[in-house]
Design a protein that fits this description.
6-stranded mixed sheet; binds ligand MGD; binds molybdenum atom; about 700 residues; N-terminal domain of TfIIb; globular; binds iron/sulfur cluster; 25 helices; Dimethylsulfoxide Reductase, domain 2; alpha/beta; Rossmann fold; about 30% helix
Length: about 700
């Protein structure tokens, strides 16, 4: 994607704000105070290395989109929108919130924010108001929780060898991530390793992704079977004397009991569960067992299965058994979120402390919450008002039918602060226009790397668009809260956070645009000990210890968690009526629901389609490009079939997320996904769904 900027156009430095582990350092052509040209990846940033994805290279399409929201608007009950002033909007919101608080208590107000921007100041401002007013909390379960706790269960810390070291590996295992779609920079470094060291690239997924097409070895297993696969790999490592017994003795809790458990996990046993051949399993074990500098790059695919925490943990046991952590270019990585050492108090805390802290509601359960499910409401008051920022739950949240039913409630007051009239905004009472990243100041941490980057304001927003930070502070004034971040500008809030975190002065940091937070190589790669008190990796997880580290909540009986790493049969069961497994893996040109509005992305992704195995299609009398229905007890969705043999029989993949309205009947793919919390601590299992599939004309069953 990289080209030389033309010399006459000024180029400014920025950071991609989207929810992508790459968090690219950007160079943006600034054509005027209000106009941008091309966006490129910064060449001097070692991880970005001059490369960015197509969708952000074309950001001019998004920032200057004719449909950007420009003014506050109020809806009259139907779809008639009336322009109002910011003062009118803020006064009305403050009045309604105060009246609702008086009648139903502060917990009946639920601010709701997520991943539209990864800027800490913008995202955190919503939480500052929540904290100051003791509104209901948000338990963050969409996205990373399931996999994060699986990683913590082994290492005790979310860290790992710097992903730039991939370039020094002899073998790279890309497991449960599709970086060609979701974090293109990982491919830059993996391909460097192949070029420089002749490294092998292995991709483990549930279908033949665009990444697998570029790999040397592709392993297509059944969804949710990674734990069984990993256990069999460990069986072979022990059987064939490929395990590093010295490393395990020194740095893990490995012992005869686990060894005995693994005896039963033969490749033949795992072949049944994974749908792989025992030969594929043995070959993989032999490859990683004989290649010390093997780098396991785990992705969020793990976090989308009900048994994903245990699968992640089991996969993570492999580099510990081979001792890969000790070798340059070896080890494993999921996220660096344990390394920032940030003091975010000025962003997150406000007002005076409250006696009893408000309940925290599971964000994945927004459907059950809004439709009055007592358990989801923790037996507390109903939610009567919401302020929604940087998220589009009508599209992205599970159990969509319930989410939409909830938003249709006449007694629910909803404010949405957005860049576009999303399908969530369309259901709001008041919609407010939001800035984009080049129009406000913020900073960003890089989950897939080791830098914290500053993204300064470079241009004026269009119309009356205002930032989250500004909106929250204006609303806070009307609600009578002040102090800390409520009295600072967005830039001052960045500066104060950097100062409190010991990063140094913003003026200095702004010169380079980043702070390096990488741990010392031995610490990052745990090669001299893990982050549990005894310094040992856990093959037998201490889930209660993980819960405390993560600040998580048990959502199942702790007794159901298996004692050792391996297969955990916890996924949504298939039955005679629901014989298929559906996964909603990410589309290349959409980023969750962002970019569904831009012409370049729409052109690439076209209409929603389901990949289905040709033999399954034939049995169901479905031809390529036929309209089909996919359904289960939660509802049904209509889309196009695309015959594809790069997956196992019985598996259906819908690359997501299209707008709900892109489906002929307006029901988006999340209609089918469950919002029940995955064990042990919750999380929505977006790729773990039992469904039926039929030609569209046939009568559907539920
Ligand atoms: N283009 C694009 N980029 C994105 C996003 C997007 O929607 N589109 N989303 C952004 C966000 S919010 C995130 S969190 C990241 C996520 O990015 P990734 O880390 O890539 O994670 P996932 O999107 O969940 O899925 C990764 C892969 O896991 C596979 N998978 C599903 N179930 C299993 C399983 O049981 N086992 C194995 N081995 N594989 C499985 C899926 O088929 C998919 O190919 O990407 C970010 N970047
Ligand atoms: N079926 C299925 N569903 C999924 C997933 C999946 O893989 N499959 N992935 C899940 C994952 S991992 C995630 S993280 C979620 C993400 O889902 P969301 O959190 O909804 O993320 P986006 O769709 O990227 O962005 C939401 C909105 O934020 C707005 N926005 C961006 N910046 C700002 C800002 O500064 N201020 C304000 N007020 N608004 C802003 C954008 O215009 C956009 O409409 O989706 C989840 N949903
Ligand atoms: S690869 Fe990810 S971080 Fe980089 S520009 Fe694209 S969306 Fe942004
Ligand atoms: Mo995510």
């Amino acid at each position: 994607m990289s080209q030389k900027p033309s010399r006459s156009v000024p180029v400014v430095r920025s950071v991609c704000p989207h929810d992508c582990p790459s968090t690219c350092a950007l160079e943006v052509e600034l054509l005027s105070d209000t106009t941008i040209g091309r966006v490129r990846g910064a060449k001097d940033d070692p991880y970005t290395d001059g490369v960015i994805c197509e969708k952000v290279a074309r950001y001019a399409e998004r920032i200057h989109h004719p449909n950007r929201l420009l003014f506050p608007q109020r809806r009259d009950g139907k779809q008639n929108w009336q322009r109002i002033s910011w003062d009118e909007a803020l006064d009305e919101i403050a009045e309604r919130f105060m009246a609702i608080e008086t009648e139903f208590g502060s917990e009946s107000i639920w601010p709701y924010q997520y991943a539209g921007t990864m800027g800490h100041v913008m995202r955190g401002s919503t939480d500052r108001l929540r904290d100051a007013k003791n509104y209901s909390g948000q338990y963050h379960t969409i996205c990373s929780l399931i996999a994060s706790v699986g990683f913590l269960a082994g290492t005790g810390k979310l860290a790992g060898p710097n992903p730039e070291l991939v370039a020094h590996s002899d073998c790279i295992i890309i497991w449960g991530t599709n970086p060609v779609h979701t974090q293109v920079n990982l491919m830059t470094h993996a391909i460097k390793a192949r070029k420089n060291n002749g490294a092998k690239i292995v991709c483990i997924d549930i279908y033949e992704t665009a990444t697998m097409a570029q790999a040397d070895v592709g392993i297509i297993l059944r969804p949710g079977s990674d734990g069984a696969f990993a256990a069999a790999v460990m069986h072979v490592l022990l059987r064939d004397n490929l395990a590093d017994m010295d490393f395990m003795a020194k740095y893990s809790d490995f012992g005869p009991e686990f060894s005995e458990v693994l005896q039963k996990c033969t490749p033949e046993w795992a072949a049944e569960i994974t749908g792989l051949s025992d030969k594929e399993i043995v070959e993989f074990a032999t490859l990683v067992g004989t290649t010390p500098a093997t780098y396991f790059r785990f992705g969020y695919g793990f976090t989308r299965q009900r048994n994903g925490a245990t699968n992640m943990h089991a996969a993570l046991c492999i580099p510990t058994m081979t001792g890969a952590w000790q070798h340059k270019g070896g080890g494993a990585f999921f996220s660096n979120s344990g390394v920032w050492g940030l003091d975010k108090s000025v962003i997150l805390e406000g007002g005076v402390p409250h006696g009893k802290k408000a309940r925290s509601l599971d964000m994945s359960a927004i459907g059950p919450v809004l439709t009055g499910d007592p358990k989801a409401l923790k037996n507390g008051p109903p939610v009567k008002a919401m302020l929604i920022q940087n998220t589009n739950p009508a599209v992205v949240a599970p159990e969509q039918a319930l989410v939409r039913q909830g938003f249709e409630r006449k007694d629910l007051f909803v404010v949405v602060h957005e860049q576009f009239m999303t399908e969530t905004a369309e259901m709001a009472d008041i919609v407010l226009p939001a800035t984009m990243f080049l129009e406000h100041n913020d900073y960003y941490t890089r989950g897939g790397h080791s830098r914290v980057l500053f993204g300064p304001k470079h241009m004026d927003p269009p119309g009356e668009a205002r930032s989250n930070h500004w909106l929250i502070n204006q609303l806070a004034k009307r609600l009578g809260v002040t102090g800390g971040g409520f009295d600072l500008s967005d830039r001052e809030t960045v500066a104060e956070t950097f100062a409190r975190s010991g990063y140094g002065k913003l003026e200095e940091i702004a010169k380079t645009g980043f702070v390096e937070r990488g741990l010392a190589p031995e610490e990052a790669s745990f090669s001299t000990g893990f982050a549990w008190p005894d310094g040992k990796f856990r093959f037998a997880p201490d889930w209660e210890g993980v819960r405390k580290k993560q600040g998580a909540e048990w959502t199942c009986d702790p007794k159901i968690m298996p004692e050792f790493a391996g297969h955990f049969d916890a996924n949504e069961p298939n039955d005679a009526t629901h014989p298929f497994r559906l996964a909603t893996s990410p589309a290349r040109a959409f980023l969750n629901s962002s970019f569904t509005e831009t012409p370049g992305s729409q052109k690439r992704e076209k209409t929603p389609r389901a990949f289905i195995h040709p033999e399954d299609a034939e049995e169901l009398d479905i031809a390529d490009a036929d309209m089909i229905q996919i359904g289960n007890r939660r509802g049904q969705v209509t889309l196009k079939a695309q015959l594809f043999d790069g997956l196992q029989r019985g598996v259906v993949i819908v690359e997501s997320l299209h707008k709900n309205a892109a489906h002929p009947d307006g029901q988006g793919i999340n209609t089918l996904i469950g919002s029940d919390p995955a064990p042990p601590f919750g999380g929505a299992a977006f790729h773990d769904c039992a469904v039926w599939v039929k030609p569209a004309q046939a009568t559907a069953q539920t």
